[in-house]
Batch of 2 targets.
Target 1
Amino acid sequence: MSEHPVEYRVAVTRPEAHLFDVQIRLEDPVPQGQVFSMSAWIPGSYMVRDFVRHVGCLKARCGDRELALTKLDKQTWQCEPCDGPLELSYEVYAWDLSVRAAHLDITHGYFNGTSLFMRLHERDQRECRLHLSPPEKVQGDWKVSTAMPLKGAERYGFGEYRCADFDELVDHPVEMGDFTLASFEACGVQHDIVLTGRHQADMERLCRDLKTICEHHIRFFGEPAPMDYYVFQVMVVGDGYGGLEHRASTSLLCSRNDLPAADMSGTTDAYRQFLGLCSHEYFHTWNVKRIKPAQYLPYDLSSESHTELMWVFEGFTSYYDDLGVLRCGLISPEEYLQGLGQIMTRVWRSSGRFKQSVAESSFDTWTRFYQQDENAPNAIVSYYTKGALLALSLDLTLRLESNGRYSLDDVMQALWQRYGQPLVGLGENDMPVLIHEITGIEVGSLLDRCLYGTEDVPLEQLLPQFGVSFNLRPSASSKDKGGMPDTEAEKARPLLGARVVDDHGEARLAAVFDDGAAQAAGMSAADKVIAVNGLRVSSANLESRVAAADVGACLEVHAFRRDELMVFQLPLMAPKKDTCYLQLIEDDEAAADRRRQWMGLG
Ligand code: ZN
């Protein structure tokens, strides 16, 4: 006889209070007293979030009898022994508008299983059924969007869904609401785009562009696609950005202006970034959802789970996201190089890259990358940005040393065939061995220097061999993201050496950079600058006032630290060359050939 499934029920009866009602029913609980727990984190977002903090009114029953509960730790309970069936009920407060948790009001409901569902210990390998009840007291005609396999429910309907186990149950977020829906097919697989929130997006354009990207990635790893249905779940807001990958869907948060308008010609920077985000999350369908660190097979969602491998899972994905958009023709080589120059600028501007290696950044992501404070630029390196540049360095190195025979694409495809498809975890030290096996090329020393060490990736040497010049220049202002030459620079413009943000018109320092003028003067993050050389400044003109002065001059700066007025002498120095841009070199045919192969342009 087959095992009883674990039955989960979610009801929306109090959306105005942002409460989901959850019930769990288990026919045959563990005889000694069923243990169950909430998750501390959600895969893909590496920070302990203690989802249990939003759980209330927990009760356990067996028939008419209420069962006593013993709390074992912050998120785990044991209930008194019973023969079953065991029924748990509780409410979950859902008011976190992000892709990582749950959100519910009268206009829509969204949840990740990690925010809503208790894991029943020793029963978590069993089939899970999820019953979604039609909502009460809501606006509009609600439908359901999830990549969770259907049991009794119809596609987009309330009713019953089914998962093989708890791990799958928490990997299919659910969106409920009166959303916009559009569908397309990519390599024979149905893909849905679901937009919640007010928008005027050109759905045809979205479908066309996402189809191009999805087909590119499916063919990159090889048909057939590893899922038989896929959903882009998008929450559209005034100002927001975020994405989280799942095995057959992605949850995205974007700004209304990121989406293509009906009358839009060409591609805006914002839409290009949105396509890059979609490409990134879709690439994760293979890289991290199926090719996984051994550490995550299975996930331990009860506490931090450490791996040094985020350079492969986030770094490589960050490399292939924009490269994929370029290779399928949605952006030009110049636009691609502009984006790459901006990533380089982010890395080159942060002195933290000399203090933390990418491998350490990955291992410590729980306490450092995901918990950044005002000192982060001086203290840490991002495994996304430097990881992407490391991927680029590996790709270019493999292409050069094999005379164009091999590239990082071959390594990715081998990762898929050897680890992803058979679901074998990637060991912490497997990568250099695998790369050598596939290409015959030794990358240990590059990894020692730039992954486990804190050296800069050798792009200055590599890129020119692909017909791309690597250039560094001083930053024009804190709004200067790099990626382009500075055509307006007539003289060296001194910089404040701090990130300035607007605080009700006033200029507040959000971060003070190592070795910059502000730090030398003794200024700190959170200082509010009110005057330079005796004249009032605002957030709008502080930086231009500093830039207008001469290198070598000293400015008198008045600022409030808390409620204390302070005076600083700001010594203006020559700006560092920390802003990168890349340009095509057209006069070297062999290099241009290599570039076309790398960029997939024939
Ligand atoms: Zn990612």
Target 2
Amino acid sequence: MSDGASPEAWWRDAVIYQVYIQSFADGNADCIGDIAGLRSRIGYLAELGVDAVWITPWFDSPLRDEGYDVSDHRAVHPRYGSVEEAKDLITECHAAGIRVVLDIVPNHTSSDHPWFVAALRSAPGSPERSRYHFRPGRDGGDSPPNDWLSVFGGPAWTQVDDSDGNPGEWYLHLFDASQPDLHWDSPEVRREFEGILQFWFGLGVDGFRVDAAPALVKVPGLPDMGYSKDAFRADLTRADHPHRDRDEVHEIYRDWRRIADSYDVPRMFVAEAGLDDVARLARYVRPDELHTTLNLRYLESAWTADSMRTAIDTSIAVTAPVGAPTTWVLSNHDVERVVTRYGRADSRRYPGVSGPDLGPVDEELGRRRARSAALLTLALPGSVYIYQGDELGLADADVPARARRDPIWIRSGGLRLGRDGARVPLPWTPAGASYGFGRDGAWLPQPDGWGDQAVSVQEGDMSSFLELYRTALRLRRLLPGLRVASKLRWRDAPRDDVLVFTRAPGFGCVVNFGPTPVPVPLAGLVLLSSAVTGARDEVPPYGAIWLDLDGQTTV
Ligand code: NOJ
Ligand code: CA
């Protein structure tokens, strides 16, 4: 909360920490992170200084897409705990001043969901099938109903058997075959999701991230996309797309907003909506719809002065006209970690892939850039998302082929590495079983040396990533220039590979994207530098600094 804004608008400038629960902390020694582990680390989050956590799906699920395949949205998967423990967690987080945001997955259910199981047992045309997209195949039934492709690669349709064992209808899945798409024309589907929101809001949850927010509505008739024969993965970029960003999707979110606003303390939504068309994106955060949208444009940008400045300007320009704040996201569980991506010569983000095919990674360079990126990001107006482990400077782990489990890896027959490298359990201690993640192993193997960047190693070491994040977060709360209402103003930069901006009152930020130092171009006191050593009157190569321009801040 800041600038006298009501506490209800906490999401406008909140720092939200993404907890990938299975990899955060394991409380019961089964090698999988859980609620007990998370509860034991609330102190860590409070000390880090975050305002909220976003917890990735912890619902009942067969876990074919790590929980984004939900079989019961009102139950916690037993491996994570129970609804009772979830309630305790929410209470404890609130007591520590941390809000709790969950992840809702409305585009699809798991194929183990009772609705889908019932649909498979029911005849074509039955009410049970009408909750999903079932269609007869083409070519006498043998070919999929249209040419749509999955976001994970391969066809977006799978054929089921009829009750007599003969091949029957096909169902649509924009993701894995274990994630059948729901049919949002169905009033039952709408009511069910409203009930799920009310269930968790009733337990005190402060908000929801909306998974695949633009995907829910499909154009009637499901026309072909016109893919070429060798296309492998869904093209999500097309305008007037048949299964993405249909106008009707907004009615759903208006209904959801009414529910969120019906509480004494209104609840919030953040959309996962990676739309290239920024004007279309802004429609999701109109005043009567979702509150914010995860900024994937920023996340995808290459680490160059030009590209980052364009991403920042575009992001602010998109949401300002509708009165919504911007969010800033450097990474998440779906992409390579910042250190790895920024360690490449070409630091743009490529969807769903990682690995040597994108060029070698210089992790040292990646770390220096990632430290600067942390300072740049935390200095921007709006809300910031931190993916767990980024505050430790973790790079993607090299997960052995036998341990990989991402459907992107499986569906591509190992041609695409997928996202497992960014999902490896956190190191809390330098040694020991799973480096303190739990008392035993870790569900995804942690590489040798993983403990070198453990929390306990970094704590108290002022040259560490963790302490850089802690200091930056503390200053972010403290400095009036970093409050949400304070606008960013670009200043002349001494070189093309440098960005300089100020925010009144008295805050300055300089980011040097280049390989040579640059003299500090603003008069003021250096509050924080991404580099551990170096002269105070210059911004080091690949470095960033924060400045107090008024000399008013006592740190
Ligand atoms: C986006 C989620 O972040 C990702 O992990 C998941 O695979 C897809 N949506 C499908 O739910
Ligand atoms: Ca566990």
